[in-house]
Fold:
Amino acid sequence: MTLARRTGSHTTHSHSRWIVAAGGRRDSYQVPIALHEAKRLTAFVTDFYTPLDFAAVRRLTSFLPRAVAGKLKRRYSPNLPSRLVKSCPLASLKGAGGYDWMEYNRVLGKCAGELAARRGAGIVSYAHLATSAFAEVDTLPKVLIQMQPHPVAVRNALNSDQFLPDLQEPGLMNELHWPLPVFDTLCRESLLADRCIVNSNYSRQTLIENGVNSERISIVPYGVDLDFFTPVNSESGTFKVLFVGQPIRQKGLHYLLEAWRRLKFHDAELRIVSREDRNNSMLSEYSSEFTFSGSLEWKELREEYRRADLLCLPSLSEGFGLVTLESLACGTPVLATVAAGSSELLSDGEDGFVVAAADLTRLMAALESAYSDRRQLRDMRVAARRKAEKFPWSRFREGIRGAVGNFEPTLIPSAANHE
Structure:
């Protein structure tokens, strides 16, 4: 498995060893695990990793409060030995409480880039960390994992959305609020990479529109833990719609809230699961319209998927939306917009619904159709699970190895055609 770096008309590199850079528990560590399985991983650089493969650490966590121990355990995978992981404590300090997001990215990326340079390894970096990581490796191979659409596409979607302009987002920075130097830096990131890996055709197109050669882009759709996210028989007379994610404009939640208010369904419940506080103007304006669950543990989230009749992902611009696969795996159909990359997985009317983004009328029509024909929704549950079964994490890891290992595009015309 090799990666050639092209300079002009010359091919200058062939690489088989890689450093992976990512913050947090990004994608359940599937990218470093993929390269470790192929014996290609030199190191995984992150902010914090719990070495639970050390007996002393396991004993220590057994004495900690359950909530603390649970958080520590989530920063570990038995498929990723801690001897291959380099934690960067300085990055953790910079990112504590989210107080300095760009400095966190700079420090963590630089740490990974310096290690790659010392070991002569190629680097696979998630977006936002990549600029500082790539700056350290000069001519070594560079691969970017672009989770979101190009920043220009996200900014354009937010700029064009004039629906309910008085609703303010919680104190989260987005592409409209980034300082110009930060925005310009992150816009150039995809141009620095020898290869860009995205998770949808939608994201791929946004990169092409902003100057990235299509031959340098591979599409690798996400996967899901099919053993954990499983369906159960759960029926009630109440029509339950679920939203999982941040209560921000980019997610299109304001369209869903307004649609729900206007539709005035009887015997129906809209449930919102989010790590953010419900006391922000987007949610407080509609506080009587929904049930707020706050942040949930994985098992609790799985129960939300299972109890729901429909997951709604009304995004204005989203690279994928992993919640789509989690919901489908639990047998729950999904309503998504064409601006959510995961809508490419759906077969409209069979395992979910696909509507235009930022279109209240069509969103309301789809919700009303689902509400009016509960039998159709029940029939969709089998198809939903069947669709999810096409996307195990093992398939994602195989796609990552293929994308990193060669320069031939691995394009997927439409995941709805993966029959």
